[in-house]
Every structure is written in C-alpha cells, then in structure tokens.
Amino acid sequence: MLLNRRDWLSHAGGTLGSVALAGLLAREGRVFANGETVGAGPLAIKTSHFPAKAKAVIYLFMHGGPSHMDILDPKPMLTKFDGQTPPEEFHKIKLEFTDVKKQKLMGSAQTFSKCGQSGIEICDSLPYLQQCADELCVVRSMHHEIFNHTPAIWLANTGAQLPGRASLGAWLSYGLGSESDNLPSFVVMHSKPLKPGPGVWGNGFLPAVYQGTRISTGAAPIPYLTPPSALAGGNQRAVLDYVQGLNHDHAQLRNDSVLDARIASYELAFRMQSAAPEAVNLSTEDAATLEMYGKGFGEQCLTARRLVQRGVRCIQIYHGGDADDWDSHGDNDKQQGRRMAEVDRGCAALLKDLRRLGMLEDTLVIWGGEFGRTPTTEGKSGRDHNPYGYSIWLAGGGVKGGMTYGATDDFGFRAAENPVHMHDLNATILHQFGLNHEKLTWRQQGRDYRLTDVSGNVVKGILT
Amino acid sequence: MDQPTLPMKTLVPQSGSPSNKRASIHVFTPIVELLKKYYKRGRPLGMTTHCGLGACALTLLVTFFTAPSFARADVRFNRDIRAILSDNCLGCHGPDAEHRRGKLRLDRREDATKPAESGDIAIVPSQTEKSALIERINTTDRTDLMPPPKSHKALTNKQRELLTQWVAEGAKYEEHWSFTPIQRPALPLVKNLQWPRNPIDTFILERLESEGLQPAQEASPETLRRRMSFAITGLPPTADSQSTPDLDVERKAWLSSVQHGEHLARHWMDVARYADSAGFELDNPFTHAWQYRDWLVRSFSSNKPLDRFIQEQIAGDELWPQNDDAKAGVLFLSVGPIKIQSAGIRRPEEEENDRLTDLVDTSGSAFLGLTVGCTRCHDHKFDPLTQNDYYGIQALFSDSKRVVSKTNSKENTTPIAIELQRNTAPNLVRVLRRGELEMPLRDATPSLPLVFPGGGPVENPTQGRSALAHWLTRSDNPLTARVLANRIWQWYFGKGLVRTAGDFGRQGESPSHPELLDWLASELISSGWDLRQIENLILNSATYRQSSIPSAAVKAADPEQRLLGAFPRRRLQAEELRDALLSVSGKLNLTSFGPPITPPVEPWALAALRNKNWSPTKDESELVRRSLYLIVRRSIKLPFFDAFNSPDTVNSCSARESTVVASQALTMLNSGDSLRFSRELAARLWSESKGDATQAIVLAWHWLFGRAPSPLESQKATAFLNARESVWNKTAPDSQALPPGVHAAHFIPPPTGAAWVEWCLALINSNEFAYVD
Description:
The complex is a heterodimer of chains A (464) and B (773). Chain A has 2 domains: 1-41 and 225-280, no CATH class; 45-218 and 288-462, Alkaline Phosphatase, subunit A (3-Layer(aba) Sandwich), CATH 3.40.720. Helix content of chain A is 31%, strand content 15%. Chain A is built from 12 helices and 17 strands. In chain A, strands 1, 4, 5, 6, 7, 8, 11, 12 and 15 form a 9-stranded mixed β-sheet that branches. Chain A has a two-stranded antiparallel sheet with strand order 2-3. In chain A, strands 9-10 form a two-stranded antiparallel ribbon. In chain A, a hairpin with a 6-residue loop joins strand 13 and strand 14 (415-417). In chain A, helix 7 runs antiparallel to helix 8 (257-280). The longest helix of chain A has 25 residues, at 332-356. By secondary structure, chain B is mainly alpha-helical. Among the domains of chain B are: 77-173, no CATH class; 305-472, no CATH class; 670-772, no CATH class. Chain B has a two-stranded antiparallel sheet. In chain B, a hairpin with a 7-residue loop joins strand 5 and strand 6. The longest helix of chain B has 21 residues, at 348-368. Chain B is globular and about 95 Å long. Mean pLDDT of chain B is 87; it is low at 1-30 and 39-72. At the A-B interface, helix 5, strand 6, helix 7 and helix 8 of A face helix 24, helix 26, helix 27, helix 29 and helix 30 of B.
C-alpha cells in the first residue's frame, strides 16, 4: 500500500521531510541540500518566444499513409479517366514500388458529401467526422520528398529522414518545460508495432529527459511503474525513506546539485506511481462519454483528453501497423475503409468533447500520416506511396475551422496550390505554442539544429 | 618520430611503493628527476636540432625553482581575442560579404589593417592611438561607439583592455588552435612545488594558481581505489574488508587485464557508432559486427600502438592482407547503419552514396574531430574544408565496395554479414550540389584535405584508404593525436579538455588547457602512440588523485569544473551500472569475446518494433556476461541501457549524456532485474556473513561503496532491517521476494529474508552506488 505524499511528509519528519518540502521537483531545479537555488531544472516552465495559442497538441498519426483521394481530396478527373495511363507530366515521379508510366489511373470507390456550414467535402465512410466539418482545417497540399515509410515517419517527427534528431514532442518539452509535476510532458500511445520503432519519439541529441514516454491503458501504463508483484505486500515508502536517508547523508558532504536532482527524481517517480494510473483510469468517466468515444482508438483519444487536462503537453496516438495498416498496396478501398471505420468515432468524439469542455481553443488536434497514396494503381487495386501531394486535417489550437487550404493537381499526384511541406507543418505547430522554429535550436556537432532543419514557413493562412 | 623513447617504466613515478624515495630524500627530488626526463625529451615536434639535456633544460629547471610567481603577460589571439571579435564584431565585419558594413573585415589581419570605406584603419599593429578599433570601442560618443548600442552588445572593461593590449603587442592573429602544428610546450612554472607528481599537474596547477585557486586534497585510498577500478576496468574493485591491497599493484593488474580492454572497447564502440544490426525498417541482425568488438578488446588489452589501431580500422585489409587481426579492424567500416530493402525499386547509386556519407562523416568525427558532414552540401562555413575535400575523401573510400550476404535469402529480416571487397579500380565519385545525387557538379579526385600537411591528390587511388590511414597518423597531422589524447583524457575524467570531443573545429569548444592537450598529444606521438603511457601519466597525476570535493573557492569560481580543482564526480555509465550490479551480487560471468548475447526483454519493450527478430539466449550463465557482450540493436535499445543514456548508434557518439530522470528511478526500484539483483545480493551477503547482520552490513558497504560503514550507518541499517523484519513477521512474504538458493546451507527465516532483500534493493538505489567520487 502506497502512502500518499502528504501522509509521507507528515510522518517522515526531520531533515528528509524538510528536503521534500523544499520542492523535490526536477522541473523546479531547486537545490535543497543547502537551500540555495542554482538555476532552473530541465523541465522548468520556460517562457515562449511570443504568446502561445495552443497549450497542448494531440497528434493522431495515421501510420502507413492514408489515401487522400479516398478521404479528404475528391478527384472527379481521376474517376473520369479511371483505367487510363496517367498524363506524361507525371511519368517521372519517383515512387518506391511502381513506375508511374506503367500504371493506370484509379478513381476512388468512395463517395463524398459537402458537410456543415462550410461545405467541406469529406468521404462518406467518416459519418461522425462529417458532423465536425466546421471545426476542421483540411490541408490538401501537404508534400515532401521521402517515399518510404521509415524515413518519412522520421521526417514527420524529427524533421530529418535519418535517425538521430529530436522529435516534435521532445522539442516542445525542451522549449517550454513541463506543466505537470507528476506526469511526463510528452506521451505516446500505439497499439501496433511501428516501422521505424520507438526511436521516433526519442530525444535524439536533446537530453533524455525530453523523450516521449509510451503509455498503455491499464494498471501499469508506464514501464516499471509499480513494484514487482513479489514485493507488492511490502511498503515501498519505507524502502524509499531509507534510500533517501542514505542519499541525504551522502549529499550533505558533497554539496552537488546533481546528487540532489537524483534525490528529487526518486520523489517524482514515487508520485508518478499514483498519478499515472489515475490519469489513464477511464472508469471515472460517465457512460455517455465512454459511449461517445467508443472502444480501441476512441479510448486512446479519451485518455489523451484526460492527459491534456493533467498538464501533458504533447500526446501522439499512432494508429495502424502490421496487417491493420493504412499502407494499402493491395485492395486499397477495403483497407482504407476499415481504417476509417476504426478512427472515425474517436476523432469526432475528441473534437466534440474538447469543444464541450472549452478545451479546443488551446488544444491543437492534428490528423495525418507520413504521406498519401498514388492516384495510380499498384497491382490490380492497390495504391503506392505518394509524398508529393496528400491531405491532413487540423482543428483547434488557434487554427481556423471550416476551411480547406491548398490543392493538388487534377489527379492528386502533387501539391499544386499553396504547397505545405512537412517542415512548414512543424514550423506552424511550434508557432502555435509561441515558439519561433528558427530560434528553437540545439548546438550539436558544430551547428545549431532545429526541428525544421534549414527550411519551414509558418502557414499563416490557416491561423485564426 | 625518429627520436628514441625511454622505456615506459622509467618515466612513471612509482609513488606509494616502499621504494619511494620521496619520504627520505628532499621532497622535491623525485619531481626534479622526473621533470628532467621530460625536459630532456621535450623538444617541440618537428624540430630538427637536438636540445638534449643541455642548456635549455637546465635553464628551465632553474627558472622552475627560482621564479617566485608567474603571471600571464602575453595576450593570445585564440585564447583571449577570437571569442571577443566573433561574439561582438564579426556579425557585421566578418566573412559574410552580404551583411558586411563599412567594407571592414576584422577576421583576417590583412583586411583589418588596411583602410576601410571611411578611410580609417581599424588596426594599426602596435599603435593603439592610430587604430580606429581602439578609439571606437572606447569612445563616449554613442553614435560612434562599437559595438553600436542598438546591437545590444557591449564590451566589458576587461575585454577592452585585452583588445588594446593585443593591438599594442602587434595584433598577432593565430590560425584556429587545432589546425596549428602540435608543439610540445615547455612545462609551466608553478608556485606550489609539493603538489605536482608529473608534468600533467604543472599545467593544471599553473591555471589554478593564475586564478588564485588551489587544488583539492588527495582523495582517500578507498575512494581512489573505487575510482581507478571503475575507470580502468569498468567494474567495482573486488572488495575484501580484511586486507588493504596495494593500489599500485592492483592498478598494474587492472591495466593489463582483459577487463580493461573490454572497458575501453565499450568507449570506442560509442565513437564507432557500433551496433549488431543494420537499422532502418528491417533492422537485420549483423553476424559480423561482434568480430570488430572483439578486435577492439584485443587491441586495447594488448596496448596496440594507437597509430596502428587507426590504420587497421581504415585500411587493415589493404595494409596487412595476410593478417587476420588487422583485417578485423577494418570492420569499423561495416558496423554502421545500412538500409536493406525488402522490395521495391532498388537504387544502387543511392545506397553507395549513403555508405560513403556514413564512412566520411564517422571517420571525420572519430579521428579528425571534424564535422565534415557540413561540406557534403557546401564549403564549410567555419572550418577550412571544402566540398572538394569532402568528396575527395569519399573517393578514397570508393577503392572498395560493400558486399551483403544474407543467411536466408527468403526472409526479409534474415541476419546478414557485411564484407568489404576491394575494387580493381576505384568507383567514380562525383561532387554533388547540395549533396543530391541528381545534381552532380564534377568528378571528385581521390585526395586528402588540402589545408593539412600531406594534403592533395593521392598517388595510388586503388589504395585510397591506405593513403588516408597513413595521412591520419602522420606525426605532423595536427588533429589526430590531439583528438585521441583528448578522448583518453575524457575516459578518465568524464569530460575532455575539449568538451566537444568530436568537434575540434571552430564551432567546437576550445580546450580548457591547450598547452596540456598539446603536451599529451606530443607525448602520445613521441612514445610511439603508446596508450598505456598516457594512461599511466593520468593515473599517476596529482590531478587525477584529487578528492571530488572542491574547496568553496574552486566551487564558486569554477562551477563547470573546467579547471579541475577537484576530481569531477560522475555517474556510472549504463554498462558499468549493470556490470556493477552483477558483480556485487556475485553473478558476473567474466567470459570474454564471442557473438552477442540476446537477453529476454519485457513485451512492452518490443511492442513498437515491427521486425522483432528477438530470440533470447537460453543459457542462463550467458545472460550474466558483461554488458558489452549484450546485443546492440539499432531499432531498439535494451530498456535498462535506454534509461541510462546509451548512445544512438547512428552517428559517432563523442560523449554520453548523464541525465537524471524519474524513469531511471522507476527502473532501479521496480524492474524485475532490480529485484533479482537484490535477491542475489542478499543471498550472497547471507552466506558470506553466515546470517550475521552486523557482518553483512560491513560486507555490503565494502562491496557496493568500497569503504567501511560508519557506526551511525551500521546503526541505521540495523534499525531498518529490524523494522522491516517485524513487518514481514505479520505478513508472510512472497517466495519470490526471498533470497534464492540459500535455504539448505543457511536457512533464512522468510521475514528476515524479505527484509534483507528490501535492504539490498535500497542499497543498489543509493546515490553512493551509482556515482564515483
């Protein structure tokens, strides 16, 4: 049985109690052994470059590449010329598996409706999301150059196709600190394995304190969160008090802020043991809410909302992977349709719930994958990867609702109007947090690195 | 070097041994004797005339003992001036022509000393009154003042004085420090003659004294023993509370042990971006990489000369084709990340471009300490390297190609072996605009960087790597020895003299002690690239032997610990921490060499991994081998190592992070491994103490902390054990919470056993265990 923090403080007494009372938080960066303050800890709240519009981001990452022509970017010309060889101007497009000139144009089997007051066209396989059309900013002109999954997912997350750079969530934690005393500021959920592995939410060259923490639902959402079951009958606080007693005696002679920080990290770990299970425990939500979100992906969306309420700044939910991926090289329509059915309810519930709770104004929601798909066939009925033009949507967090932005060409091969590069999207996300993407830098190997590498422009046209 | 070198042992003071003359003879004598040897050998590199133990050495020694004090008289451009100009002036008066103001350029002497647009001359050497720069930084007229007030930059009085003195002394510019020839500096003069034990200390002390500071006291023998044991072997000293071992004897044994080779191998694996798998989406396991790891262990254990150590990694196959050991060294070029394609359209020219990019970037950082990667796309903005230099080195590596063999051609994620195969003629490499294959500018010439001695096109491009290997290890290469000496220093002090150990360029940090670094570099070269020589110098230095508790004055003046007025405390690295846990719990299997061991990991750790390919090693005794023998997968780090800052294995890692985060605490408190270590440790303590808690406390303190417990510590430990035991008397503990396997020999009542396990869990979580003083 764990004691809560106040119980512990009331009986710990003596020097240890006062140590705790002095604020054992890495994020406050206090040195308590001798009462002096030596600068802020790595997770101390930092001032943004300019006032922020968003406090948190929920990034719904559709792993594998959703097919824009079948979801958010209807293409009548594609339907009209279905089965024909694509125009020559597209023949030189470099793809991973197919040679464009040898493929046929393939119209969408989906139907679309104009939705809400804004009349945004959304595919009819997303009936719940259609109800939220006026919250959405659909960007139809996303693009970049990387046509395989792993490097493209790295690019989306870290601004570089090769591993080693810091992820968006890590940059946000580095730039702004943590709002939460007892939860990580960057949390990731996924239910399937990812092609690039867990490195894509890593800290890269930034200090490890900024890396994302993968959580799952249930009693132990974070690795090693609870004592091993064999010691469950014990009293971890008693063990920890003894450890901290040893550490305090050790630190007193040495007067070293790093040792004090380690003492503090044990207290944070102790608090996380009760805070994290509480944060992901959905049983306190009312029946209507649970019903609205649905199971699976919906539960992850609801968890994300609870985490935002508890001060978590960046939440990523990866959807897709293995056989249940957005990567529809064969039977595109069936595979895309299944994925849409899995996420539709959760996405819409999240938007409605955030709106109801007054949280959508400062919570940015993003839906999108590492790239889109080709207007041309792969095999009989599949679509290949297409990074040169694809769609995502954003909502809340200072982004205009009820609009579309940019456009692809008549078939959906390339971004043709107001192109938005992945770097532009990342620059825009940082901008909504009050961060100038050119100023948020880390010196490494002789140069200043940033999330947007050497490019990126804030997409002003979609901001309120 | 053509100069004969003295046998190593005559150079190493055997202090602390019974034959030490220090106690009986005049206190300075050993230092004088010792320093004489260094002065005798102390001619600058590249000097052709021999100085011998002639007039110059004697003069220096006389000065050494007579000079009452020493103060810096001269102003040095690199040390004192460069940063002032760079931070305050060069934004408008630097190399960038587009943003230059007043047609004035201050980064080059020839420009700074000629009339600018206004007709004024910024710098008239030795004539401060005629130098516009001096006038403009001192004026009270705000419209004339430099830097302009609106730039929000302002010089301090000290900076103005330095600039003035520098101009007065002739405004001498210097090349960036690491590109200048390595000169063996004279030993500096110090006031405190008792403290130095060898030349290293004179450099450290001179700097401390110039700041009005004194070094810390010598650390206690127990502290030194634990410090040296971890530094040399990566393991805690095997403790025995009954006897006091002779540290000098132990140190020699440690230095000649294979465990030493293993520990340094792990350091170098960071530099070599080592991993046992290809990375990227498929992350195919490597079947060859471990042979490079074993080569590292052999090389460091046998004290292979470090020039040969470098040559074998670059061109072992070309230089010694009949020597299997040398050929294993060149696997350095084959342990980097490789994109293996499962399907789709293959583009071999991209694969080759990726390979050459990895090789040039990794070698540049590992051996030259230069971030050559920038020059892939454009001439370097800060360092004198050009795009031609970059692709010139790529062309040297193109004398061979990569051959990938799969063990099972049907499976995508099958294990693979990478082999380097020599080309009959080097492949053509092109200089690429912005590094993009679609934009070739011209053919690259296989060549070495032009700005350094021996640069230019190589004679025999079919042996391009041999040329590179020899060039890197030329005694007049200004970078290689400096970079190596700095790495060795970092292995022992935690931080390098240059803290950016992989970046000695203009954007890297300057050395805290440039003369010491040059002295070590020249010592490294003149000793025949003898690693042990440098290690012994470091381990014998008074600098290394200081306490880790700085004086209040040092702590206040030097919070970053650059002056080394105390030994920098450090946290154990991930591998050291795990090895120490195995060692104190009596389970460590010291078997060396062989293919990597795959430990079982929790399902959550593999959940995000697409191609798991994870078959844990079955033999339990293999699972308790040293950490460097555990598999290093690029797509996933072992959870314990991930928590404690293991490197990313994609780029050369020049220094580990040492962050303190809650996930480390959770790992150490709650993981199944921690419980297992605690149970084993408790069992070992129980059987060695025969169940006597008082005795067990003494043993535990020696094993974990390398010292005896204080009476108060014993008392607190006893109190904890008693309190926990009485709790477990009321609640029967789980059998998995008890020490394993001791029931038959020495039966532990379960409440006592559970209390001991909890106590051990507490001890392994303590700061004293995780940090080295």
